[in-house]
Amino acid sequence: MEAKELMEKAVRFHGHICPGLAIGVLAAKYVLEQGYDYSPNEELVAIVENDNCSVDALQAILGTTFGKGNLIHQDYGKNNFTFYDRRTEKGVKLSIKISKSSDKKLTRDEKIQFLLNSKPEGIFNIYEIDFTPPGLAQIEESVPCEICGELTMNSRLMTYNNSEMCIPCYKKMRK
Ligand SMILES: [Zn+2]
Ligand SMILES: [Zn+2]
Question: Comparing C-alpha atoms, which of 123, 121, 36 is closest to residue 79?
Answer without folding.
Answer: 123
